[in-house]
Each structure stands twice: as C-alpha cells, then as structure tokens.
Fold:
Amino acid sequence: MMNTIISLIAAAVTFGTVLMYGTLGEVLTERSGNLNLGVEGMMFMGAISGLAGSYFYEQAVLSSGGTPSGVISAVIALITSMLAGMLGALIYSFLTISLRANQNVTGLTLTIFGTGFGNFFGEYIGQKAGGYVAVSSVTKAAFSGLRIPVLSDLPVLGSLLFSYNWLAYLAVLLAVLMSWFFARSRVGLNLRAVGEDPATADAVGINVTLYKYAATVIGGGICGIGGMYMSMVTTSGVWVHGCVSGYGWLAVALVIFATWRPFRGMIVALIFGGLTIMRMYVSIPGLPAQIYDMLPYALQYAQVGLKIFPLNPCSKIPLAGTKGFLEATNDIDKIKKDVEKVVSKNKLTDKIEVKITEIKPKIPTAQALYDEFHKEPKDVEFSHENGEVHFSEHVTGVTFDVNEAQKILDQNKHNIEPYSIPVEITQPEKTTQWFIDNKLSDTLGSFSTVYNAGNYERSHNIALAAQKINGLVLMPGQQFSFNGVVGQRSAQTGFKTAKVYQGGEIVDGIGGGICQVSTTLYNAVLYADLKIVYRTNHSMPVSYVPSGRDATVSYGSIDFKFSNNQGYPIKLGCSASNGRLTCSVYGIKLQNKKVEITTQTVSTTPFTVKEVEDSTLPDGKRKVKQAGSEGSVVDTFKTVYINGESQGTNKISRSNYSAITQIELVGTKKNEIADTPAAAAFGETYVGDDTIQQ
Structure:
C-alpha cells in the first residue's frame, strides 16, 4: 500500500511539474492585468526550441570530434526554451499593450501560431535528421531524476522528496519566490497595483506599460520552460507531434482554480496531476474511467461549497480590493478580525471602516426540494426502424417523504452543522446494463493479428492490455482513449520489459507489444465504420499488419482515439491467447454493411547498413543483429458497401515510415590457428563462418 502511495505522489509530481510552469507563468501575466490565452502556443514554442537547442549543440560538438556535455546541453535547452516563450509573449504584448488589440483574440491567435511553429519545426528538423529528432543519452541523463547522497536513500522520504529531476525543484523554488515577490517586495506590490487599478498606479508614478511588458514577457518565458519539460522529460528527449496539446489550456484553468496565487498554483498543479493519473494506482472494480477523469474538476467545484444535502447556511462574501474571499458566518466579531488581518497584510496606513452585513441563509421548503429531485423509475427504451436506432437510458427513481423532510428542515433551521434527509432510490426493471447485456450481440467489426506466444514478456503485455479493453461500453457520442483505458505502462501497473522501437533501433522497454493491441483495435474500429478521432502510425514498419494500417501509442504523448458515432451503445471485445489477438466491436447491425480497407504505396526509401565491430566474433565473420527494412509513404483507403453497392472510396490516412537500419556485427577477433606454421603448411584459410576450409 505504501509503495502505491509513494508511486502515486511521484507520478503526480512528474505530471504536475509541466502544469506548474504553465500556471506560474500565466499567474505572473494575469497579475499585470493581461489575460494571455496563448499559454499553449508559448509552451509549444518552448518545447521545440529547447529540444532543437540541445540537438544542434550535440551535433556541432560531435562534428568537431568532441564529446557533448549533458550539463551544457541542459542549460542550452533551458535558455532557448525560455527565449522562445518570451518571443511569443513579446508578440502578444506588442499587439495588446501597444496596439490595444483584443486580448482574447490575440491569445487564441498566439496558441494557433505557437502550435504550428512547434509541430512544423519539429517535423522539419526530424526530416533533416533522418526521420526524427532526438537528443543523446548524455542529455537525457541530465534531465533524469537526481540522486542526492544520503537524502535519496532515506526510507519513504527519499522517494517522496529527493528523487525528482532538477526542473521539478526549480518549479517549486519559483513558486516560493513568486509568492514572496507578490506579498513582500515593492516591485511585486507595484505590479499588483498595475493589474488591479492601472489608472491609479499611473497617477502615482508607476510605469504601467513597462510593468505589463516585463510581467507578460517573463511569464511567457516560464511557460516556455514548461514546454521544454514536456519534450525533454515527458517524451524522453524525442520530438513527438502535438506533445503539448491540452496542457496549456489546463494551465490557464489552474490559474483561476489557484485564485492567482503562485504557491497555491503549485499545490493545485500537483493535486491535478495526482488526480489525473490516479486511475493507474487506485483501481476500483466496475468504476468507469470517466469518473477518474472528472475528479480534478469535481474537486474544484467542491471548493465553491454548493451543497443541497446536507444544507449549509454559510456562504462567501468578496472583500473589495482583493482577489480572496472571507468566509461569512453569523459571528460578526470573527468577520471583523478577518478583515483587519487582510488590511494589515496590505500595509495600509489609513484607517478603513468596513460595514458587515449579516448573512442569513435561505432554507428551502421540503416541497421545493421534492419538485426538484423527485423522479419516477423508467425502463430503458429503444427501437430501430428505417436503419436507425432510437435509444434512451433508463431513469433511476428518487423520492422522499415530504412531511418527514419538512420536520427535519424545521428542526435544523438554526443548525449550521450538516444534516440529511432520507431518500428512497428505485432501480427500473430494464436498465441500460440490461440493454447492453442482451441487445448488443451483432459483430460490427473484427480483426485479428498473431504474435509469438513463446515470448513471455510481450505476450503478457498484450494480454494485460487486452484485458483492460475487453467489455468496455461506449455510449452514443462517447470517445475512447487507448491511453486513458490501458493506463501508464510501468512495472507498478503490471507491465513487463519487452522489445520496442527507439531511436531507429529495436531495444528493451516497458510495455513492449502494447502497440499491437492498439493496431488490432484500430483495424476492428475501421471495419465497424466508427469515427477515428486521433491515430498515428509507427515511425518504422511493423510486421503484424500491412503498412498504413497500424496505430502506435505512447503514454503521455501519443494516443489512439475514436468515438461511438452510432445512435446506441457499443461494446468492445478484446482477447489474446495462444499467439492470436482478436479485437471486435459489438452493437446492433441494422443493414448489410461491408467495409473494405486497401493501401497504396506512394514512395519507398532504401534502408542503410550500419557495421559495428565485435571483438567476440572471429575476424571477418558477419552477423545480422537487426534486420533492415525499407521506408515508405503509404495511403490508406476505406470503401463502404451497403447491400453490395459501393458508397464511395475515401482516403483515411497517409502514413510515413522511416527505413529500419540494418545493424551488422563484424568480427575483429584474430584466428590464432591460421597463423601457426602447421596451419599454413596445409593451406588452411579462415573465412568467417566458424569452419576451416581447404
């Protein structure tokens, strides 16, 4: 249990750090009175700039015959990412501060620009580098978790506090410094004045334009560092198309949740990170994944204090001139003390009179509550005609005794403690689950692939992923996320080490084989004619499906998504046994539909051969360590037939595959037998195949 908690906290810090940078950068910006919605764009610019800075530094050093330094590479990544984010913020500042352009429109435009900037240069540099851009293991090591002597070895505390990379500690330090800056420094107080009342700040001699420019540009630089964290830490120094997508918008939301306070922003980012990945560490059987997805947002709504059962007569009142709230109670003396405390923190010398109005809660009547919450149980309803299914979910009955409830309300009308009203819940006879179990029996699409059952680790990973998907139900319009369902691939979640693609080579990695599951499911979804939301091909060809029909995944960066575009629920089936993996989509087959998938190779690229000397092999002997495969560009098409008549052919994807380098081991071990006089006398020659020939 303790190991699970420690792993959860560590993962929360890892995920939350990128949000911390985005949140802190936007807090600094919004404190100046600017709302920059271009956080995601600046993070994209920082992500590619940091990665490119390290990559070009390494290439320059290697070309001159030197050895790259991980520390210098990390510093370059930090500086270039920050400069890129500052450049994006400078563009925003010039347009909104100097030219008075609309902040919302400008921020959204910056997001679009930054996203295109990052993805364009990421792909461009990757093509110039031979298919992808990635930093060396030396630089990756510079961004790995720190090992602090003695402290890192402490039980529990060592893993909780002293095992993260330096960027995580830098984010925490930044949050602490910013909190002090806003609360105690003269410049920070001036900046708050600029953001809250720029006219008054200008009247007392504060350079409003300078403060706004400085805060917005520096805030953009901090956001850029957050993007660099994504490309250098989360994706392990490899550029992944669209790697920042969504994180910038989460950061903007967290600013509001944190009420514009840096230290609170840090805490909220870590909590948000923990709740986001909680499903990987806290598994409740039968609990839908969507419940986990809503937890971070539900927590924020809980802060508002909207309660019906139990009733709470307390409310919150805003204090003029602050962004905080005072908890309002019937204790007027307590409110006065709280006000005096807030005023003293602002270091105001003039005496301020505060008028407090007692808040009296409005207690609803039992009948009003009954009218709002009463529901009669209702069976699930469905029908199908003219090729359409009409489906409605069941309704759970809710009721309570009005007279009894009114007595409880009357008894507690002066009570500020929580209390409850007994409620009766009634389930209908035919629920949505009954519909799923009894009516979703037709196979809409199915696909199978084969794997080596003798490879225990890979077979285990495939079976585990298939188990997580099997039986999953998608309601109409609901979206499926492979990473969201299968979860993080780690030893803690049960996955094992097997062969994966990395850096143009086949190496060992956690979760090897997972992509075969996503690929098999992708083909089943195609045959079911469902809507593909997001799919990415492998960087290199795979053996278990034709090129153009694969779907790669990587937790935290690359996902496979589709949605249920049917008018009724669908159910997924996925099984793996005896070397055969089968994925199916079940529903209601309303018409004689057939889907045909075809591919067309647009172009090919020959593979190269890389020779590696091996002192354990005899001189001249060659051994293929990794077989090569040519690269290609492949278009994939889908044709739908209804009652045997074609409904047209549509191009659904274009896949780009890099060639797989063939790695050949070349022996350098000298043959001592051939050098002896006796051997020479018989004319023996070693030809490198472990035989002596005449």
Summary: Residues 437-608+625-661 form one domain. Residues 131 and 658 are 6 Å apart (CA to CA). Confidence is low (pLDDT under 50) at residues 303-330, 347-352, 674-694. DSSP finds 21 helices and 23 strands in the chain.
